[in-house]
Amino acid sequence: MKKLSLKTLYTCTALALVGCTGSGAEAVESSGSEAATQQGERQSISAEDKKKGAEVHPQLVQEFGGAYTGSQVGYVVRVGQDIAVQSGLGDARSDFTVTLLNSPVNNAFAIPGGYVYLTRQLMALMNDEAEMAGVLGHEVGHVAARHSQKRQKAATRNSILGILGQIGSQVLLGDSTLGRLGSEVFGKGSQLLTLKYSRKQEYEADDLGIRYLASAGYAPQALSTMLESLAAQSAIDARAAGRDARSAPEWASTHPDPARRVSRAATNAGKLGVTSGKRNRDAFLQNLDGILYGDDPKQGVIEGNNFLHPDLKLKFAVPNGFNMQNGASAVTINGSSGQGQFTTGAYNGNMTTYIDAAFKALVGDKTSVPYGEIQRTTVNGIPASYAIGRVTSGNQQLDVTIFAYEFSKSSAFHFATIVPAGGTAVFSPMYQSVSRMSVSEAAGIKPRKIDVITVKRGDTIASLSSRMAYKDYQQDRFLVLNRLRSNSTLQAGEKVKIVTY
């Protein structure tokens, strides 16, 4: 979190394992004729698509932490352009703009106009060049099959345009954070489905990504192995956040089961009759070495249930069972009983004005969530104020809270949360956990990076796992990071990845 904006343009989990949400993706529709999806068929990217993509691109880059500037950029651009060309969406590599994002989220996506994105975090989870090409090919496949446009058409057919649709249609048609939060947690109906890729669309993008791998000379099985790593990493993230990794996730009703998707991708790769292909593991690991891993301390870091921001010198903790996702403009908090964001806004010393602006920002500038009297309090020595609003969507009532803190006469931060009516207490411990960090605490927060090392004689999974820069799940993290099993045997001379400070 580093910017002064609450609104988020676009959020998409890598390979859409949990789907995509946000108005930006829907706004950038493909306007030309049906995109080519068969190898050998080519068509130019339309001028309108290029224009739309160019307009959205800077906002997407900013929202995902900015463009990464490490030595890996040129390598990612080359591989990304090579695989994107296989889609038939453009005639030349120069038709595609590939960006490596400075984001700690496992993520990749593409939008019409030739724009392809990969986060450094997801790159670090990969183990060879073919897996990177497969991920990017999958995302380009969504564009080739015009899935974004199909989702937008479905959305416009819905009578309910958002969980807070009775307040205003701009909730989902604009880029309202609260609209997104509400649809993710409570919108189990049509508005949720239209903002996520369907099972059929995910499978279609997988198939296209596999085809692109084969046509580019890569091992088509690479997408399957990457999906396996991503599913395993998601399970670790769930356990680290205090959630049951075995429980059915909220996207299960509309998205493929990860295990089924892995086996399906492997089966379909085999059907191509291609038994080999390049993986380029050595070149990939050489380029990956040294890449930033996890949170960038300049944007704050997540340690278990704690969010720590050394530059702003503030910290807070979320309740057990909730997880956080750090973005350029806000920290998003997710759980089965509610969702929220921690962010900031312009502050001139008037907390009443600040809270009113925060409520209005949730649904757009033309209206606001109706809220009650602003209450004043103190949290760990910090002046704080809060107000609660109640809104109705269909037959459901929701409580919306703005809980704000004055850190100085010119700076304030706040939580914006949404829960079922009467459930505001679930976030009370979080509100009360906000405090200032000491200078020594802030100085103790260090960035993590990927260190590619050569296995020496006598090294074991246990000994190398102990070098991982984590206090929990060290061996699990090491195994997933290197796509190893607990009974795997390390060979002297082979390369593996560890996370160090």
TrEMBL record:
The keyword Protease applies. Transmembrane segments: none annotated. Pfam families: LysM (PF01476), Peptidase_M48 (PF01435). Residues 451-498 form the LysM domain. Residues 37-46 have a biased composition (Polar residues). One of its GO terms (biological process) is proteolysis involved in protein catabolic process. Its cofactor is Zn(2+). One of its GO terms (cellular component) is membrane. Keywords: Hydrolase, Metal-binding, Metalloprotease, Protease, Signal, Zinc. The keyword Nucleotide-binding does not apply. GO terms for molecular function: metal ion binding; metalloendopeptidase activity. InterPro entries: LysM, Mito/Outer_Membr_Metalloprot, Peptidase_M48. Residues 32-52, 246-266 are annotated as: Disordered. Residues 1-27 form the signal peptide. PANTHER family: M48 FAMILY METALLOPEPTIDASE, METALLOENDOPEPTIDASE OMA1. This is M48 family metalloprotease.
